[in-house]
UniProtKB/TrEMBL annotation:
Residues annotated as domain Lactate/malate dehydrogenase C-terminal: 158-322
Protein name, per record: Malate dehydrogenase
NCBIfam families to which the protein is assigned, alphabetical: MalateDH-SF1, PRK05442.1
Catalytic activity: (S)-malate + NAD(+) = oxaloacetate + NADH + H(+)
Ranges where the Lactate/malate dehydrogenase N-terminal domain occurs: 9-154
EC nos: 1.1.1.37
Pfam families associated with the record: Ldh_1_C, Ldh_1_N
UniProt-listed Gene3D superfamilies: Lactate dehydrogenase/glycoside hydrolase, family 4, C-terminal, NAD(P)-binding Rossmann-like Domain
């Protein structure tokens, strides 16, 4: 059997928390296949370089046969060279005294540079998953400055929000997570996000029971939403560190859906152009999507109820404001 050509996987924020979970799973072959070798381009800022050296030592000691070559760099123009996949974890972290505007101000220039670098040196077919927060607007900045990369190739991770909602439903119904289908989130990866289960169902054998028949309306619009919106904060409070293992898992789930296809709707933060739900163009918005042959499509045939429409509007307003602030800050 001939060996496959190596692909190139670039990861920013590679010295961070999520990367430490994600990279080992990728190296095991779980995402790209156990016969797919790859080059691993690890990108971080200067203080992360020693951590990256230690990480590379651990990767060497794990004897991963799929790794063809590894580089560690602070330069996105080197790190994104010929990338087939780019996972953008690196972002300026929010501290207690910072407003959302401050955070957007710190992150917009990072994603401007990374967008430019992707545009110049990555493959035109590169698939980019942006994870660093505020993720929707960071991904939008990346699409703006990655002029040579189709906007459809750059998405924001909202899969963790969907996964969290399925896990909540599974505990509520005492059913396995794999039996819960077509639950997804709309909008921003923020406390305004809204989980929509009006199309969701519980699959048992060939029987499909709508979730709206199994859980009370009061719970759906109350505790369920609140718990999902606050889940990240709760994990942070308990662990003293943000969700990293579940975020890494969501990145793998998201990329698997994108690359290998889906049977059900999944949440993806994608460019809003030509969507059928009156979301203005040029926003990165979490929509229910299906994937086939390496491309995603926004679900076309859904009929959001009045509450959902209200929440879509709220998320649009929030994201339009984020976009205004980020573009304003990048004007000069
Ligand atoms: P972390 O602080 O442990 O790691 C972030 C890494 O990014 C650090 O090593 C840092 O040095 C690096 N970095 C900062 N600026 C950089 C730049 N310009 N270029 C390259 N690297 C840079 O954070 P983490 O826990 O790994 O989380 C990463 C990001 O993901 C955070 O912004 C977090 O809020 C976000 N997040 C998003 C989701 C989601 O669902 N979208 C879920 C969890 C976390």
């Amino acid at each position: 059997m001939t060996q496959k050509e190596p692909i190139t996987v670039a990861i920013t924020g590679a010295a961070g928390n999520i990367a430490y979970s994600l990279i080992f799973r990728i190296c095991s072959g779980e995402l790209f296949g156990t016969d797919q070798p790859f080059n691993l381009n690890l990108i971080d800022i200067e203080p992360g370089m020693s951590i990256l050296e230690g990480l590379v030592m651990e990767l060497q000691d794990s004897n991963f046969h799929l790794i063809n070559k590894t580089i560690c760099t602070t330069d996105p123009f080197e790190g994104f060279r010929d990338a087939d996949y780019a996972i953008l974890l690196g972002a300026y972290p929010r501290n207690k005294n910072q407003t959302r505007k401050d955070l957007l101000g710190k992150n917009a220039p990072i994603f401007k540079i990374q967008g430019k670098a992707l545009s110049l040196v990555a493959k035109r077919t590169v698939k980019v998953v942006v994870v660093g927060n505020p993720v929707n607007t960071n991904a939008l900045m990346t699409t703006k400055f990655a002029e040579n990369i189709p906007k459809e190739n750059i998405i924001a991770l909202t899969r963790l929000d969907m996964n969290r909602s399925i896990s909540q439903l599974s505990r509520k119904l005492n059913k396995n997570v794999s039996n819960i289908k077509n639950v997804f989130t709309w909008g921003n990866h923020s406390a305004s996000q809204f989980v929509d289960l009006s199309n969701g169902y519980l699959l048992e054998g060939s029987k499909k029971t709508p979730l709206t028949q199994l859980v009370e309306e009061e719970w759906i619009y109350g505790k369920f939403q609140k718990t999902n919106q606050m889940r990240g904060k709760e994990v942070l409070l308990k662990r003293g560190r943000s969700s990293a293992g579940s975020a890494a898992n969501a990145i793998i789930d998201c990329l698997k859906s994108w690359i290998y296809g889906t049977e059900n709707y999944v949440s993806m933060g994608v460019i809003s152009d030509n969507n059928p739900y009156n979301v203005p163009e040029n926003l990165i918005f979490s929509f229910p999507c299906t994937c086939k042959n390496g491309t995603w499509q926004i679900a076309k045939d859904l009929k959001p109820n009045d509450f959902c429409k209200k929440m879509i509007k709220k998320n649009v307003e929030e994201l339009v404001e984020e976009r205004r602030i980020a573009f304003e800050l990048l004007k000069d």
